[in-house]
Amino acid sequence: MAQPQPSKPKNHASKAKSKKRPREDNSNSNNDGGRKRSRKSAFEDEDLDFDLEAGLNKKIGLLDSMLLADHLAQKTRRFGTDLKPAELSALDISPAAIKDSSSFIQPRSLENLPAYLEAQVKDPKTLSNAPKENGSPHTIVVTGAGLRAAELVRALRKYQSQNVTVGKLFAKHIKIEDTKKFLESHRTGVAVGTPVRLIDLAESGTLKLDKLERLVVDASHIDQKKRGIMDMKETMIPLARWLSRTEFKEKYIDPEKPLQLLFY
Fold first, then answer.
1. Within 10 Å of residue 87's Cβ, how many Cβ atoms?
2. Do 193 and 153 meet the contact criterion of CB atoms below 8 Å apart?
């Protein structure tokens, strides 16, 4: 009778397979870092639009009428979440209402504002004139804050004379009753104001708009947080209400003498 063969001891160690994965090639170990750097570079590219030292969003000056109208609509809807669709639509500005001034290639700084205005008129000398009726400017520059408005007034002093005053239509240390008295007693050709104060003065009747020829939005200026007049709810919505006034919308498309809407 055949004897059973003794079983050989199993060599577990020889059969154990390594569960370690092969080490990946380190040549691509910086891929994640590369992606991060790419994202950072893209962000830096966006930052190239901002010149914080000069306080400018340089991109605004490159936008044509269509892009500006779209930009306005986007900002209005971003900050007007408490408004109904019909109310938001009423605040929209047609691209046809906006004058394309993207051909002005100089930086949109305080120093260059007079040159910008003079580039928009047939005769720059007319900017120093004023309608005979008090409180009836031909040009209104709209900005977001009183401090900035005061800076704009100083930049536009060249259009002031003994008989014509640059209007200060903003709330920085100026009571509204004092501003009303100023408008009732002074001829003003160029005026600078903030949206809420401009609306209040127009509604009171002391700011007369029948001789108005151009509205200029101080759109390129930004603060250290990269915010301009269209980047904050407290300024964007009042700005939209001011620009979309019924009498303005009618004048924007006047075939004979349209009201210029400019974004500086």
1. 12
2. no
Each residue's pLDDT tens digit, 162-180: 999 999 999 878 999 999 9
* Residue 189 DSSP symbol: S
Other Cβ atoms closer than 10 A to 46: 9
pTM comes to: 0.82
| Span between the terminal Cα atoms of the chain, in Å | 111
Residue among 258, 228, 262 at smallest CA distance from 243: 262
Which one, of 151, 133, 132, 149, lies nearest residue 141 by Cα?
Answer: 149
Residues of the chain falling short of pLDDT 50: 1-4, 6-20, 22-44
> Pseudo-torsion of CA 48, 50, 54, 60, nearest 10°?
110
SS3 219: coil
Which two three-digit tokens encode residue 97? 């209402």
5 SS3 class: coil
